[in-house]
Specification:
homodimer; alpha+beta; Phosphoribosyl-aminoimidazole Synthetase, Chain A, domain 2; seven-stranded mixed sheet; about 20% strand; globular
């Protein structure tokens, strides 16, 4: 990925932190928000009076969440920030400060880490987050653990637990693309292993789904959209583990059931083409693929239609009584249980980030 | 460590989080501080109006920071919280909420994680921290990344950069014990490897230094002491990498030099005995051993003497002009440079947590 390989050991731990923080230059400089950035025992920032603090932590670990051979370091930086910003957005809050703990193996160079931080800096700028500090340590696999703190007015916060029977279920963007991208990357990895280094993959036709997997975008823009439209969903969650898992979270915590119209699920044409290529059901990509980082929310029908009409979401189903369970209705009228009551069957998809389910 | 071995996979990711959060029961229940605990996309808490937020992140990784065979899981939980609380205390702030990202290898059982969380719960209770959430993922080595957010009034905060020429340098507690404990554990590990599982180590005579290494205490109590005595140090840092490293941080950031009287360094008799046993210089344990988690601070002579007189610190030296450098003065009048100007010589000690210096 980089021609030059400077061992991290040549600059030492504190030199490394200086070098990396220089990539996010100014982020930890004293400001209205940041009273004291990195370089002390802890960073100091100023919370906004009258706002609640929203905190989330996410880890990305090499070999579990990503394959470094197929992931440009700058993309990794983008992804690790986006994944946490997505959690903040799902609370209808806005991110403010971030810290990162890096575990660095010997085969990662200073240049690679600088590229990682370029991605982090880009994502931080995109989402208006300030990186105020962190920790670096050696480790066997590259690991990144990000904590982001955001803020929201108490009345704006949206939890998973607020969905009401009769609400409509909506998703932003399109689904399953990240899983489609993962499929393509896995195929390319296999080809590379079989054909050796001379194999040159042509990733361009699948660029959209690959990018959705490698450098997802958090839907923080949707928090602005909700504010503009003066809509507050009754429940919201980000789609990191797959639509089925997220639906179950909302339904369990809200004490409700749900029916999803499979024919309403939004897909990009490239995602459909990948599913066709692998002779797989594209709907399953949406339900169990994960890492789309779109938002699933429940809202009063008037609100849902307002957002859908403005082109910012699609309505995929309805919140029902708890007794209905959590299910999908296919175009030909088949009922597909999504709450495990059908005895599973899709378990082989698994959820990314789960400890070996 | 535990007779029973329930694979983590049997409870799944969300079951695991429920099981673990039950060990810190109540911590993430809604309260004046915690508006929404774990179980949503992010946790929500209320910052205290008029206070600044102080944030720190620390990672502990198996094989880098600890050897699981010699570290009871509950101690690890205590240590990972204490290390971050120590950073907050070094800012003269008090911790409030914490998140943890866990990387879990297959050979770690549910019981072991529950024991880890018992340690985390105990430490959280000790320091008045509420664990509000986190992330779990599979990984090759056990890793824990903790973020703690604390608070302080702006006028109470103490940075590294405030030391003034003429201030006295002080440390709390005693030094070098953690390194002495590590030496004993390394010796026992070697014996165990040579003599096999039948070898039963007698750790009791060295319990103090072993405990100082395995389950250190953060000196949050010293923040209370400073408040009671109405003393605000001019600069403060926690001793995690060794006195020499911390002294250099304070001096570099304050633009000053320092002279430490070696004969004033405080040691426990057990620490001295271990150094004698290994025919090592106990002073080097203090300067380069690390992980003591005591506090090093600079203060106006009147303030320093007030704290020392009350028995809460010892005065070990004086802040000098920058031109003096950072140095130690031995009992026989020898000058030992601590800022690397002497060409090193102690580099083999290394700093724990540094990426392979």
């Amino acid at each position: 990925m980089s021609e030059k390989f400077t061992p991290v050991s040549t600059v030492g731990e504190f030199g490394l932190i200086d070098r990396l923080m220089a990539r996010v230059k100014g982020d930890d400089e004293p400001s209205e928000l940041v009273v004291c950035g990195s370089g002390d025992d802890a960073a100091v920032y100023r919370a906004t009076e009258g706002r609640l603090q929203v905190i989330t932590t996410d880890a990305l670990i090499e070999g579990v969440h990503f394959d470094r051979r197929f992931t440009p370091m700058s993309y990794l930086g983008i992804k690790v920030i986006a994944a946490s910003v997505s959690d903040i957005a799902a609370m209808n809050a806005r991110p403010r400060v971030a810290t990162i703990a890096l575990g660095i193996p010997r085969n990662v160079s200073l240049e690679m880490l600088e590229s990682l931080y370029d991605g982090i800096a880009l994502a931080c700028k995109t989402y208006g987050v300030q990186l105020v500090g962190g920790d670096t340590t050696s480790s066997r696999a590259l690991s990144m653990s990000v904590t982001i703190i955001g803020e929201a007015a108490a009345e704006d916060l949206v939890f998973r637990r607020g969905a009401n029977v009769g609400d409509l279920l909506c998703v932003t963007g399109d689904l399953g693309a990240s899983y489609a991208g993962l499929q393509i990357l896995a195929e390319q990895r296999k080809a590379l292993e079989e054909l050796g280094e001379e194999y040159e993959p042509d990733l361009e036709p699948h660029r959209y789904v690959i990018d959705r997997h490698l450098k997802p975008e958090a839907r923080l823009d949707f928090v602005d959209i909700l504010e503009e439209l003066r809509v507050r969903p009754s429940a919201m969650i980000d789609i990191s583990d797959g639509l089925a898992s997220e639906l179950n979270h909302i339904c369990t915590q809200s004490g409700v059931g749900a029916t999803v119209q499979v024919s309403n699920l939004p897909f990009d044409p490239v995602t459909r083409a990948v599913a066709d290529q692998f002779m797989q059901d594209v709907d399953m990509y949406a339900f169990f693929g994960g890492e789309d980082y779109e938002l699933l929310f429940a809202a009063h029908p008037d609100d849902a239609q307002k957002v859908a009409h403005a082109g910012h979401c699609v309505i995929i189903g309805r919140v029902e009584e708890k007794s209905v369970g959590v299910r999908a209705l296919s175009a030909d009228g088949q009922i597909i249980p999504l709450d495990g009551s059908g005895g599973g069957g899709f378990d082989h998809f698994g959820g990314d980030g789960a400890p070996d389910p």
